[in-house]
Amino acid sequence: MKNLGNRLEESNTDEVFLQLSEYEETVARRERDLELHQIYAQVLESSHRAVAVIKLNKEIVWVNKRVEEILGYTSQECVGNYISDLAFGQETNMLVLKDALETIQKGKTAEFEHILYKKNREPIWIRAFLKPIYNNLNEIDKYCIYGQDITKEKESAKAIKESETRYKDILDSISEIIYKTDAEGIFTFINKAWTNVTGYDIEETIGRNYLDFMTEGEREMSITNKKNVIGNQNNSSQREIIIVTKSGEVKCLELKTKPEFTERNEFIGFSGILTDITVGKRMQYYQELLSNYVSDFVAVHDSQTRYLFVAPSIKDIAGYEPEELLGKPSFDFYHPDDMDKVKNFREGNISGSSDPSNTITIRYRKKDGSYTWIDITARYFFDTYANAYRTITAAKVADLRVKEEEAIHKALEEQRHLNKVKSDFINFVSHEFKTPLSVIKATTELLQIKMERKVQNLEEHIKEELVSIDNEIQSLATLIDDVLRVEKIEAGEVNMNPKVLNFRKLVENSVQKFSTRQDDNRHVTFNVFGTEKPVFIDAKYVEIICNNLISNAFKYSKGRPDPIVNLIYSESDVVLHVIDFGIGIPEKNKKQLFSTFFRASNSKDVAGTGLGLSIVKKYVELMNGKIEFISQETEGTVMTVTLPLAKSN
């Protein structure tokens, strides 16, 4: 008031009243603004929508009570915190939010739908409207968000969509064609079965007249039938119709149709069902066709080799009912090894380059999975009913003849094999037995000369030469043992005496034996993996297997790293890996590796007979095991023996 008094003294009365008036207007305006703000706050507070004021950095400034009802947070929990910390989660679409904020900063309103999370972390759908808020400097530093919970709306929409999808799936899963047309005969609805039967997509069918898919003669009949059905209101009609598929094939369908009318009896179209009865209708035709050809296993095939007709005789030949084969490719029933023969035969038949009376003998898979030999003749012809080319085949069982031919062929092969074995054995004996005997003879002659000349240190010379003779005798004894083993194997006289034994101990014995024999101080690295379990094996033959594989690992890897032997126990078997880093096996020799008397082309400088691996393979197989290998020349070989575990009682 003192300042005011000073001003009264310094100013005239009119100026003072003018200033007082402006001051009172300002106070009144602010009171009105405050009253409006209070009204707006009450309106926003009572709004059915969640309303919040948020800074551009996502810090919450103010929220109404609806926020607490929707999200579960109180006003105190919201204000000062960031909305991203409270309500955002894994499914919140951050790209949508980013776009919305960019829109706000341009002074525009943004609208979008996204997922927020309640205080209990339950996700809900929100439809949000964002409006920019300006400060005193007319800059956008906040935005107001209006949110509406649309979770139930989303769930309802999802349920409706799922219901429509289920309805469509049901219609598309049935084999009958369901359709609707308008009064002009234009398709307005048709299910997926139409595509399966005719090849026409639904999109290229809707909007077309049903008459477009019929043969010319069928169209006239359909027009007449339409008039009769419409004249008999509410009466359904049933008949057979002929249509032409997209590929030009003629098909016979059973039609059940009913006219539809408005409440004022105005005709608005047809609804009905079409059933493909082509197969049944053609059966009679093929029965008549059958009488013109041979009577055994007779079948008619389409251009994709699918069965269109199968004679009842298939039941006796292969165990199938004719209906089980219809629609299936005949090629699926032929043995894979006979497919090239079948394809060449079919191509010759179609092109006319082969005599129609020609026969091929192939294997046909029976219902029980076994194969029977059949002799097949075939003829390619034009099917006037289907307006397409077909193949008719006739087959006779040839098991007895094929078995007799196989027996003769086997006898010849066995004779050839026996002759080869005899020849190989003679060559083998003449070479392999001759070598150690020659060495022994030369050593004894040299020793005799030294004794006659009474050379110095004669006793030492004798010891050295006796060691050489002993080594050759050992080699000769091993060779004789291997030859005898091969002879017993060939004669089928190997007597297995399997028992439940500790396989690890047997392997370990061989490992120790060969690790102490090496002149270069190499030894085997032996590893065991898994829990040891008993194995049902013959110890004598296991020893031969292990000795041979470990001996080879050393023999073919001179100057290389130590061999490795891994023993691995699994749930059902035990696996023995013998690994060396030696000369490996050439690719061209791998198929013959287990053949008797065979030696790889890169092993000429290493002593051996070519008998060991053939013996090992036979012994492994006699114990219900298997032997395999992987190898790369110059890098090494892994021999793998797998034997079954002993069965627990």
Tell me what the structure shows.
Helix 15 packs antiparallel against helix 16 and helix 17 (503-515) packs parallel to helix 18 (539-555). The longest helix has 34 residues, at 399-432. The chain folds into six domains: 2-34, no CATH class; 47-155, Beta-Lactamase; 174-276, Beta-Lactamase, CATH 3.30.450.20; 280-397, PAS domain (Beta-Lactamase, 2-Layer Sandwich), CATH 3.30.450; 405-487, Helix Hairpins (Orthogonal Bundle), CATH 1.10.287; 496-644, Heat Shock Protein 90 (2-Layer Sandwich). The protein contains 19 helices and 22 strands. The chain is of the alpha+beta class.
List keywords for this structure.
five-stranded antiparallel beta sheet, alpha+beta, Beta-Lactamase, 6 domains, single chain, 19 helices, 649 residues
Structure summarized in a few sentences:
The protein is α+β, with helices and mostly antiparallel strands. The chain is built from 19 helices and 22 strands.
Helical proportion, percent range: 40-55%
Average of per-residue pLDDT values? 82
- Based on DSSP secondary structure assignment, what is the total number of beta strands? 22
CATH superfamily caption of the largest domain = Histidine kinase-like ATPase, C-terminal domain
CATH class value of the largest domain: Alpha Beta
What structural class is derived from the secondary structure elements? alpha+beta
Q: How many DSSP H or I helices?
A: 19
> How many angstroms separate the termini?
114 Å
Rg for CA atoms: 48 Å
Structurally, the number of domains stands at 6
Quick one: overall form?
A: flat
Strand order of the largest sheet: 2-1-5-4-3
Largest beta sheet, briefly? 5 strands, antiparallel
Please state roughly what percent of the residues sit in beta strands, choosing from under 5%, 5-15%, 15-25%, 25-35%, 35-45% or over 45%: 15-25%
Do you know the CATH architecture of the largest domain? 2-Layer Sandwich
CATH topology of the largest domain: Heat Shock Protein 90
